[in-house]
User: What shape does this take?
Amino acid sequence: MPDASTPRTTDASTPDAVPDASTPHATDTGTPDPAARFRPSGWRLVLAIALPIVAVAVIVVLADRVRAASAPDPDAALAVPVVLQTGSTSAGCSALDARLPDSLDDRARRTLVVSEPGVAAWGSPPAVLRCGITDPAELTCSAQLTVLNGVAWLPLTGDDATTYVAVDRAQRIALTVPDDVGIGVVQALSNVVREAMPERPVCVDGVVNPTAA
Assistant: This one.
């Protein structure tokens, strides 16, 4: 009968043997793992993810350039989307229509597919004017206005364009300007608006002054 004081030893070759945690496993002894060759390193994994994203971004940029290069003929009639213009036939808009120039900031006036009162456009990409629009929700007595050549404009930023709304005249006048077109077209229109419609307060007693009938 074995002495209890004698440490029991276990032969690692027996089925009951449990490997010592300090003893390296077979795969840790320097023997190459066949799957390791197909496992990407950290920087290769980053490149594998990033390169498709960069490629997509480049494709989008090139697609935009192709669209710009194949833009419609600037001399062709322009289709302008219809919006609500309740004051387009008012006396103020009629006076503005009569003064609209053939060229605005060196941009030629466009022929429209459908000629409507209070609507005009210049250049390509076009800067589009609409007279007699309803008050935008952003128009308040505390709204930040931009005064250009004596006309107060409310800038409304959109996708790839900014719409400037003249708010100190009898009718609201909107000029939608593509982002790649300078502010000069708004300044030029300000001179026309100033001559066609008298200035009036934006607000009276803390309330937005409504448009004229």
The domain at 91-208 is CATH 3.40.1000 (Protein Transport Mog1p; Chain A).
